[in-house]
TrEMBL record:
Residues 14-342 form the Cobalamin-independent methionine synthase MetE C-terminal/archaeal domain. It comes from the Bacteria. Coiled coil: none annotated. One of its GO terms (biological process) is methionine biosynthetic process. This is Cobalamin-independent methionine synthase MetE C-terminal/archaeal domain-containing protein. GO terms for molecular function: 5-methyltetrahydropteroyltriglutamate-homocysteine S-methyltransferase activity; zinc ion binding.
Amino acid sequence: MTTTLTKGPFKADHVGSFLRPERIKQARLQVENGEMTKKQLRAIEDEEIRKLVEKQKQIGLKAVTDGEFRRAWWHFDFLSELVGVELYEAETGIQFHGVQTKAHGIKVTGKLDFNHHPMIEDYKFLHQAAGKEHVAKFTIPSPNMLFFRGHIEESAYSDTDVFFADLVKTYQKAIQAFYDAGCRYLQLDDTAWAVFFSEKGQEQIASKGFTPQELLKRFTDAINESIAHKPDDMVITMHICRGNFQSTYTASGGYENASKAIFSQLNVDGLFLEFDDERSGGFEPLRHVKRDDLQIVLGLITSKFGDLEDPEALKKRIAEAAEFVSLDQICLSPQCGFASTEEGNLLTEEQQWDKVKHVISISEDVWK
């Protein structure tokens, strides 16, 4: 008998971001050019988010997000609003496969803290729009992303232990603040784990002065300590990503090198995992799942391109994964969001919704 999930992750779920409507893109440009106020922009975002939430409900999703419509980046917008962190103009952007992002970065300039963060209000708006019949899911970058993507100024933190201790306290406060605002389904998005998957990543680890085992412990502890005091009725999941910018990626490689830490040691309620192509490796690392309450969300459907995958092939892959972890613990989603940055992936809105409907249709067949 299949367990009915009522809090998330759901058998048919999604990572969070959706393609930005042209109306929002134009309004942002108008704000930049001084032709519109931020208050007017927010009113437009409010309208578009309400429409997005209704669309998610209409097609059958149980968890609804705001599509990250108010953000330019999936991570920098949240991190730069933490106390002690600043967004700055960098010399170069983040290099993806054949394309580079805007030249922005974040730096830690002072003692970290969480206080008066604007995304609490963003969540409250989503919570109201979701209503009582659907779960409002909110996404934030994992604490590891500040260490991985941020420049930590010596004047702020000369000691890595002290930095991570303050980072954990900051996230503990953030999680409690979202809970107090009504959030019961929070997702930590994290591309930092990808450094363990490839040879290029091993070089990045060494450049930060760690061995792979040392950094694995840091990342695992940062997640577990950050969520250690979460209330029992709050679900916290993590999405492990290999990069998603205009339908390209940054990293390749299977989960094996970090599989024990990810599947046996993390205390999250669910893991959203990329498995949409050969870059992600096989399902064998799932043998390290030791908990029957850990939900494994297989990202078998790509959000990068519009072509729909063969349903029977996807069902076969779910069956293959079920050789390593109970089918009852498996869920289905796209491998990532559709717009990790405001530029979005290279598919149409119609194709985006066809992808989500594909997830729902297949999950209804598999978990009857």
